[in-house]
Structure formats: C-alpha cells, structure tokens
Amino acid sequence: MHFFSPCPRGLEKILAGELVMLGAAEVRSTDGGVHFSGEWLLSYRVNLHSRIASRVLWRVASTQYHSEQDIYDTAFALPWGDWFDVSRTIRVNMAAIKCPLKSLDFVTLRIKDAVCDKFRKLCGERPSVDTHAPDIRIHAFLEYNHMMLYVDTSGDALFKRGVRQYTNIAPLRENLAAGILLLAGWQPGMPLLDPMCGSGTFLIEAAQMSLNIAPGIGRNFAFEKLKNFDADAWQNIRAEAQSAQLPVTELPIFGSDLYGDELKAAHLNLENAGIRETVDLKQANVLEISAPADHGVLVANLPYGERMGELAELEILYPQLGDLLKKKFGGWNAYLFTADLRMPKFMRLSVSRRTPLFNGAIECRLFEYKMVAGSNRPGLN
Questions:
Q1: Of 198, 195, 203, 184, whose CA–CA distance to 321 is shortest?
Q2: Rounded Cα–Cα distance for residues 149 and 74 (Å)
Q3: How many Å apart are CA 219 and CA 162, to the nearest integer?
Q4: 345 near 374, Cβ under 8 Å?
Q5: CA atoms lying within 13 Å on the CB side of residue 342
Q6: Are 199 and 173 in contact (CB under 8 A)?
Q7: What angle do CA 13, 18, 20 make, to 5 degrees?
C-alpha cells in the first residue's frame, strides 16, 4: 500500500523519522508531507501513534491526465464499492500545483460525479455529499499533467486529539506543538516550562509524550468505516498502546499564564486528558517568573499582534523578555515561536538557530536561545 501524510511545513524530516520508527518503507519527504509505503495495518498504527502527521492518505490512483474527462475516467474506473458502502457520505478535497485546467471547482465536481456514477451503476444508488462531517474524504492532488487520488483513513485531522476542548483565540495545532518540542530537543524527564501556556497545548503534548500516551488513543478514525476494517487487529493495536502507557504521576512540566481564563482552559484540558496532576500550573506574569529548575527547556508561542496588543507593545515586551532570560534562566535553552520576524532585533540576545515553520498558512520562525549559566552578558544580533 502507498500512503501520503501531510504535516505542518517545516516538520517533514521529523515526520519521516517518526514513520520509519513506526515501520514505514520507501519514506520520501516532500514539501508539506511525506510519502511512504507499508502493509494496510500500518495506516492504523500511524493514525494512532503519529504526533506530527495531519492525516494518513491511502493512494488509490496515480496517473497522467490531459483533461477533466481523463480525471473523470480515472475516478470512475476505481472500485469504490469495494472500499465503502453507498450509505456512507462523501466529500472531495482538491489541491493543485501548476494545474493547467481552468476550474479546480469543476474538477472537484467531476470526481464527485465519477464516484456517484460508479455507485449508481453498481447498485442503483449514489452516496450523499456531506461537506461538513463526511464519513469518507476523497483527496485529489493535481500537478501539471499528473494526478493522484487518495482515500483519507483519518477522518478528522490528526491534530484533533480529542482532548483539547477549550482553546484561546490563537491556538497552536497539536502536531505543530509536538514538532516544536522535538525540534527543541526536549525529551521526557527534562524540565519544561511554558510561561505563556494559553490552553496548554505544549504542556499536554509533553505530558502525553512523557507517559507514552498515544496521541490518537481517545478518538475514532475513518478507516473504521471502510469495508476492509479489521476490528480484531485494531483492538490489538489499541490494547498494545494502552498497555505501554506509564502511570500518571507528577512530572517536571511547568506552565503559567498572565490570564486566569487561559489558565482555566489549560486546567480543563489537562483534566479532560486525564493528566491534570502531571503539570504544575500557576497564574503569573511572564516577566516576573523564575526558573523552576537549574536547567531545562523553555518554550513559548509568543503573541504576534493578532493575539495580544499592538506592535508597539511587543517592541516593549521583547527586550524585557530578553532581560528575563539573561538574568533568571542561565543553563536553560529557550525556544520562542512567532510570526513576528522582527523579534530578534528587539530581544538583544544571540539567536543560535532559526527554524522556518508554518502555523497553517502563516510563515513563522522558531528562534533558539542558549542561555549560558552564570553569564549575564547580552548577546549580539
């Protein structure tokens, strides 16, 4: 079987490594995702265990095309009735790069028509379309003269773990947060602090990683609605994951936020995940905190205009944050995620690494600051 997993741009190499660990073969990264192959049950394991993938798409067609009719014919020829029942609702998603066809909306409609026409030929009925919460998502990707069709085995995007039900106005997607933790080199057992924790995304991901909780253990997947669903195999895979979980206990994971409503959301999300006691939470101004240990990783999704204040206010915050790191976080590595690319100029600290990442369509950077223990000397930009 051939698969493709999209992921946040900038995390492709991390996803590729994760897929290799899960047993994938022919792993090949591309912009925005990773191609791979393996047995059918691999799709179950990746859906359950991947912290970085956004979806697991099963490739059912890969061919050349020249017209909308070619695309229709390819889709019509596929054995849709072998894969899911006509009672399942469907939706077709389209993405394209350098596609010469005039209307992607029309191409999307032609693929939907092909699937429905095939079912009508097979059983005299056609599946209904549900653009909001379909049972089966069909994905099409068009390049200049090459098309690929996929059946989505995930359903809802994989960053929807099913545990974060309370969010702030600028939530970080869970798979992006997990990727940032891995880029930061954080590992279970290392002290971790998020001093602007919001609804607690970094904290939840870190706690689940520490306790070996599979990110998809609390949700359902679209592959359960396919005709070839192997319920016994899925039950065994889930049971194996559950048996590998560690007991819930206090962890060196710390979170704080200035705003009580944000902190309440973090409390509720941690409780919903069953891991509230793992994290030390408190209400505090980021500029007034102290390091909770003599070393560790500080990670923060910084405000960048849309979420907290105007640009002038941020220009005041950045140097104050730099002073805090200098004075109170010697021995720590700080990882600051933001779309405000002016930030380093105001921080007045040496940036040791800049990693381009995307939060959805927003271009961002993950800035690394290594704070040397016992030194209060400011770095140079």
A1: 195
A2: 9
A3: 6
A4: no
A5: 12
A6: no
A7: 95
Global confidence as pTM = 0.93
Q: Are residues 148 and 187 in the same domain?
A: no
> In CATH, what number is assigned to the domain containing residue 78?
3.30.2130.30
Query: Do residues 85 and 40 touch, judged by C-beta distance below 8 A?
Result: no
pLDDT digits (tens, 9 = 90+) for 145-195: 999 999 999 999 999 998 776 666 667 899 999 999 999 999 999 999 999
Give the tens place of pLDDT for each residue, 12-42. 999 999 999 999 999 999 999 999 999 999 9
Residue 230 belongs to some domain of the structure? no
Which of 145, 251, 141 has its CA nearest to residue 191? 251
β-strand partners of 364: 357
Phi-psi category of residue 26: left, alpha or beta, with phi > 0 → left and psi -120 to 50 → alpha: left
Whether residue 189 is found in the same domain as residue 288: yes
Q: What is the rounded CA–CA span in Å between residue 348 and residue 223? A: 50
Q: Within 13 Å, how many C-alpha atoms sit on residue 373's CB side?
A: 7
Cα dist from 315 to 18, 216, 320, 334, 369, whole Å: 38, 39, 9, 19, 18
Structure tokens at 297: 């990783």
- The 10 Å Cβ neighbour count of residue 26 is 10
Beta strands at 146-152 and 136-142: parallel, antiparallel or unpaired: antiparallel
Asked, for residue 253, whether it belongs to a domain, the answer is: yes
Structure token pair of residue 94: 């389209």
- What is the separation, in whole angstroms, between the first and last Cα of the chain? 49
